Amino acid sequence: MKAHPPCVILDAPQLAENIGAVARAMANFGLSDLRLVRPRDGWPQPRAWPAASGAESVLEAARVFDTLPHAIADLTLVLATTARPREAGLPVMTPREAAAKLAGLGGEARSGLLFGGERAGLETADVALCQGIITIPVDPARRSLNLGQAVIINAYEWRMTFDDRAPQNFPPPTPSASGEALMGLYEQLEAELDTSGFFHPPEKREAMVRNLRAALGKAGFTDQEVRTLRGVVTALSRGRGKVLAKIAAARAAATGRGDSAED
Fold it and tell me: Burial of 159 by CB count in 10 Å (0-12 exposed, 13-18 middle, 19+ buried)?
């Protein structure tokens, strides 16, 4: 039996926008139980809804508590997220390790992830009510994360404990072009390059052709991409033909004017 999803507890959150961002992060990864302890500006806060971006159900079901003990009274396991060292003597784990621990709960046991307020984080007394500490392994030179970021990292790791496959709703990859289609592209392109004098000096043509085919072959073109590229080559060759025709016409006109002047 899969463990119950953990609830998310925000202790003294300050900004409505951050609460909305937390709700959005929760909904992204299948969490729905949001608990608010003494939100600074009360609850509900209208500014939270735009930041939730479609996660209105999480906000509408959020519960408010006067104290942290009341918020976690029904939970068997509560893990506190903090980057600061504590004296509580609790085990410290990464979000991935914490997710595995939460997922290991059996039966009707319920769990929670505790996050502190934006300005001061969690107090030592709050952490002492928990059974473990989660510390996100960020760069020591910049340890600060905003509330939504911290929640989404932990929510993602929870999701990965039971759904670690890439989404299957994408269209299947398009097969690569056939050898015949590729040869048609190679031969057309090489013919145009011959016409333009690209293969110079002539004795190096074979090596240049080989390198060109190897480079194009690595791309793994689809049949449609090959057709598109052949159209590009055709358009360029027609354009070159028009330019050459204009040059020839200009030269003919100039020659004609020169003959008239001499007469």
Answer: middle
Residue 140 main-chain phi, psi, to 5 deg: -55, -25
Q: Are 59 and 93 in contact (CB under 8 A)?
A: no
Task: Give yes or no for a contact between 25 and 52, defined as CB atoms under 8 angstroms apart.
Answer: no
| Residues 56, 62: Cα–Cα separation, whole Å | 10
Q: Which of 224, 146, 155 is nearest to 185 (CA)?
A: 224
Cis peptide leading into 95, omega within 30 of 0? no
Domains assigned to the chain: 7-160 (3.40.1280.10), 179-262 (no CATH)
Angle between helices 147-160 and 16-28 (to 10 degrees): 10
Three-state DSSP class for 83? coil
Note the pLDDT tens digit of each residue in 52-88: 998 999 999 999 999 999 999 999 999 999 877 666 6
Q: Which of 125, 7, 143 is nearest to 77 (CA)?
A: 7
Whether the pTM exceeds 0.85: the reply is no
